[in-house]
Structure formats: structure tokens, C-alpha cells
Amino acid sequence: MKKTYIQILLAATLLSACSPRVADIFDDTAVVRLEQNRDAVKERLMKAENGWVMQYFAVSDQTTSDTLRHKGYTFLFKFQNDGTVIVGAPVDGKYKTETSLWDIISDNSTVLTFNSFNSIFHYYSNPDPALGLWGADGTGIGGDYEFMVLEYNEKENYQLLKGKKRSCYVRLYPMATGQDWEEYFTKLDSMDKFLFEENLPLGMYVEAKHLSLYNGPTHEFRVFEFGADTLGGGEYHGFIVTENGIRLHDNEVSEQKINRASFNLNADKTRLVSVLDENIYIEMEGSTAFESSIAHGTVWKADSASLTSSITAAISTLEEHLHNGVGSAKGNKNARILRVGFSKANKVTLDVYYSSNGKNELKDQYYFDYKMEGGNIQLTYDGNYGQHNLINYNGEDFVKAFDGTYSFKILEPFHPSKGLQMSKTDDANFTMTLEQ
Fold it and tell me: Is-contact 113 95, C-beta < 8 A?
């Protein structure tokens, strides 16, 4: 029995000696790897010659305003090897810089910390409601001043950060060499004005879904499915204006994945296109801009210089009938289209002004029913005559020329007030430019 035990022990020893050694998965310990990563991040941040642009979001469920909860902010940073950082941003409408301390520390992961008070940056993480303005006691705006350093995105050239306390994703982009910091914010203001000066809704197209984006000037879109009732509700999705366009804070919009994408203005400045998928884009549509006039009280005036020959001929015929008419209108040759707009009764109105013997100006207003049809607006003359009954002067024939379905092309994208081209779909030559 003793012999058998010895034989088993010897066999086990031989097998152990012949087994291959399992290599270590990592060359260094976790502590060493964390230290190496910390040094690499610190070197990268200091290496940027002109500093970094931070696209920053402050998020708090305790904020009292939905329209500010996901709003984005821009800061500029210059990380210096003496442990100081220069922070630049607009404060109360004026550009300001301030120097404070920064560091890269190890706290279960690599962490970027701004470890001395900076009135520009810590304003957004300070729990004092007197500073936060919108926050509840002890909450402030709800921002962070310490960030876990995540992967560096080589494709889009940004350093991804995540707020240590509130898990808000933040990006750092290298500032272009030679770019003046104060001038950079002027660029952002110009982009903001270009995209949202008109304060009319935009359309987002994603995976064959059409969404309407309202409230652009607030930097938090109020989102509806196209054609939905916009009087209440909607989803709020914050974004930040960049020098190239905008970037949305959220990962998806109305259950449509956008992966917190940046949307850059394309070469001809007609739309904002996702940098991740060119099939996802945002634009201002003619029909949407025209329809939104109901809510915004927009009035469109016909540009007489752009009217087609058919409209000009109709006006001439109307003037001739007015000239040969009866009563106070007899002798008038001043009939003209003044504007096309929306009335309070949610009908499209066509206003025709003419003078009485060249003195008193009279107006006829004709009504059209409208509805959305395949993304276009269908106008239908409802048969009601104007207050001065131009039907007596063949006015009805003139107005009926406006029956039909129309498409609306914005002549200067994102600025419909600069001109809309109104085209009758069954007559390519039936167009006119509308001016606000």
C-alpha cells in the first residue's frame, strides 16, 4: 500500500513538471497600469498647444426648469505643467478667464479634478442655490468638477469624460492652433444665430421617422412626431452649439438612436448632418416653416418682382375689371396682391388690396382651407368672397388660380424670412416668393 502511494506521488510530480506555465495576462500590476494611464492622460492634456474645448452638460433631477435641465455649456481650458489651468468662458455676456489648480488622480480609475475653486467653472457644480439660481437647496445647477477619464476617440479626436458624481458625459476637443479664445465664442454665437434666429421648428429625419424640433433658441429641443399636436407635452432634449453645428446630449431622441451625435452643417449650409450617419440629419423645411406660421403669427408678403407671368396676367385682368367696374371701384388700376398669411380661424388668407379712385384703399380677403398632404400643404379655396366682393369684378376667377397643393422651398436654408418659394405641384410655373 505504501508503495502504491509513493508511485502516485511521483506521477503527480512528473505531470506537474511537464505542464506548460500559464503566462500572466498583464505585464504589470493594476497599480502600475493605473499610474501609467494617469501619466499618459496628463501628458495628453498638457500637450495641446492651444488648450481644449469642453462641451459640458450639467444634469440634475432637482432642477426646477425643464428647459435648463439638459442645456449645454462651453468652456476653454489650458492645462499647464505647473499644476495650474486657465479657464475661459462668457460670464454674464462678457468673456472672462480665471486661473486655478488641476490634477490627474487615481481614485479607482483615472480622474481629472479641478481641485481649487474657479468662479467660472465651479459655478455649475456649487451646491449653493444662491449661485445655482435654478437648483434646489444643496443642489445648485447639478454639475460636476471631477471626471472619470474614459477612452480617447481617435476618429472624432476627443477625450471622453464622465462626471464622477452625476454620470454626465462630457467631451474635450483640442482647440485649433492659433484660434483666439474670445473669438471662438464669437464663432459659437454666429452659428447659434444662423441656426435659430428665425425661432421656427426644424425637422429631424432618423430611420425613416420624421420628427419636429421646437424651441431651438433655448438650446433644448422640444420634440414631437411630425404632425402631432404641439400644444402640450413633447420630449425635451438638450444640445450644445458647436463651431460646426450642434451636439445633442442624449443617446436617443423619441426612441431613435443617435448616439449623442454631433450634427455638422454641410458644405452648402442646407442641413445639419450626423457625423456618425449621413442618413440622420436636421433641416428647416419649407412646409413646416409655413405651417408653423399659425402658432407664430407670421405674415408672408408676396414679392411682386418674382410673380410668374400667369399671376401677373391674372392681376392685369382683375385690374381691367376693376377699372371698368361700378361704384367706388370704377376707374381703379391699383389692385395688387399684398400678402398670404394665416388667419385666426386657421385658414390661409389671400389679401387683395385696391384703391377707390386712387384715394381710399380697400381690401378683399379670400379664405382657403389647408391640410398637410405628404409633407406639403394643400390649399383649397372655400368659396367665400371678400368683404368688398371682388366676385363682381371677376375676382373669383382670380382667386381660384390659387387652388391646389403647394410645396415650399426655403431660398436661404434656416432663414425662411429671407424667402419661400411657393410652387403649385400640378403646375411647375406657378410659383411666387414670399417675404416676411
Answer: no
Which tens digit of pLDDT belongs to each residue from 373-429? 766 778 888 877 666 666 666 677 777 777 788 888 888 999 988 888 888 766 655
358 has pLDDT over 70: no
Burial of residue 55 (CB within 10 Å: 0-12, 13-18, 19+) is buried
Residue 156: pLDDT above 90? no
Q: What is the distance between the alpha carbons of residues 397 and 413, in angstroms, rounded to a whole number?
A: 34
Nearest-angstrom CA–CA distance, 47 and 50: 9
Q: How far apart are CA 80 and CA 420, in angstroms?
A: 52
3-state per-residue secondary structure call for 314-361: HHHHHHHHHHCCCHHHCCCCCCEEEEEEECCCCCEEEEEEEEECCCEE
- In the chain the first and final C-alpha atoms are separated, in Å, by 107
Over residues 76-80, mean pLDDT: 98
Q: What is the pLDDT of residue 22?
A: 46
- Pick among 1.20.120, 1.10.357, 4.10.240, 2.40.128: CATH of 297-435: 2.40.128
Helices vs. strands in the chain: H and E counts, helices first: 9, 27
Q: What are the structural domain ranges in the chain?
A: 30-174, 181-283, 297-435
- For residue 66, pLDDT over 60 is answered with no
227: its cell numbers: 404632425
Amino acid at 181: W
User: Does domain 30-174 sit in CATH 3.40.50?
Assistant: no
Residues 6+ apart with CB under 8 A from 56: 72, 73, 74, 75, 124, 143, 170, 240
Over the stretch 196-220, which tens digit does the pLDDT of each residue have? 998 888 999 988 788 989 999 999 8
For the beta carbon of residue 64, count every other beta carbon within 10 angstroms.
Answer: 12
* Grid cell of 397 as nine digits: 376667377
Long-range contacts of 380-384 (CB under 8 A, 24+ apart): 382/347
Instruction: Categorize the per-residue pLDDT at 174 as very low, low, confident or very high, splitting at 50, 70 and 90.
Output: very high
Query: What is the model's pTM?
Result: 0.78
Q: In 3D, which of 253, 252, 257, 249 has the Cα closest to residue 143? A: 249
pLDDT band at residue 155 under the 50/70/90 scheme:
confident
Helix (H, G, I), strand (E, B) or coil at 21: coil
Residue 181 near residue 88, CB atoms below 8 Å: yes
